[in-house]
Amino acid sequence: MTELFTIGCHLSSAKGYAQMAKDAASIGANTFQFFTRNPRGGKAKAIDPDDVEAFRNLAAEFGIERFLAHAPYTMNPAAAKPETREFALQTLADDLARMENTPNQMYNMHPGCHVGQGAEVGIGLVADALNAVLAPEQTTTLLLETMAGKGTELGRTFEELADIIDRVELSDHVGVCLDTCHVWDGGYDVRDGLDGVLEEFDRVLGLDRLRAVHLNDSKNPLGAHKDRHEVIGGGFIGADAFSRIVNHPALRSLPFFLETPHDALPEWGEEIALLKAARA
Questions:
Q1: Which entry of 153, 214, 217, 271 is annotated as an active-site residue?
Q2: Of 153, 185, 259, 271, which one is the catalytic site residue?
Q3: Closest by alpha carbon to 5, among 226, 183, 248?
Q4: 69: which DSSP letter?
Q5: Would residue 179 show up in a list of annotated catalytic residues for this protein?
Q6: 20 to 30 Å CA-CA from 226: which of 19, 165, 217, 259?
Q7: Catalytic annotation present for 61
């Protein structure tokens, strides 16, 4: 039996879950990612129960088992300003409650920026926020994303992510999303040293924590700490490396999500077809 290759891209949630399922299927995807609200902040659109029910039917028809919701970029639980941290807490709590309308899915967030307080303080604030919002009964897995290390970003190293998770009381609800552009820009050589990177991930975090992969090439050389995504094969990581990534034994059973810089669905469809062809 052929192993399921779970791959999709970032879709607009403006028209609801059912439309996202249709859009995903139209380009050969069997998963998708979306922002829970405007990525620059704002109030989330009300969830329509009829839309959720239509999505469940379409997901079963199209073979969509998992999706990934993405928190807004403005959410910073490590901020120095109390009002910014409070916004992050409110957003996290609201998003996680909304996620239970579609149980057993994943919610991805950037850990945040310590804005000059120092990584140790920032890590503590992120862990405090997660301890405040995670609940034993939730079915959603919250993912911390690997970051490129620009500015005062947290999550630039596997050790920083492990430090956050070690302080979370309900850590069984927490996993990691590995972004290929981010880790490359952060100094992890996923092009020529993929085995070593994953061995280090396993040593520091444990591969059981790895739940999803963002597939993005990079406009920057290794270790640039800039975070500028490029289309697959158009950047410094290169197409051959992505063939190795989607086929690696430690990764191939995970869902993959494209965040490459395209303006139209067919362009992501072309990349999905390319990666499907590379899948052994």
A1: 214
A2: 259
A3: 248
A4: E
A5: yes
A6: 165
A7: no
What are residue 212's DSSP bridge partners? Answer: 177
Sign, CA dihedral 172-206-185-161, equals: positive
Residue with tokens 């039917």: 57
Q: Is residue 114 annotated as part of the catalytic site, yes or no? A: no
Reply yes or no on whether 145 is catalytic.
yes
Q: Name residue 22's amino acid.
A: K
pLDDT of residue 42: 72
For residue 1, pLDDT beyond 70: no
DSSP state of 5: -
Average pLDDT over every residue of 242-270:
97
Q: Which residues of 3-23 are buried (b: 16+ CB within 10 A; e: fewer)?
A: eebbbbbbbebeebbbbbbbb
Contact yes or no for 267/41 (Cβ under 8 A): no
Given 95, 160, 179, 217, the catalytic residue: 179
Burial 236-270 (b: 16+ CB within 10 A, else e): bbbeebbbbbbeeeebbebbbbbbbebeebebbbe
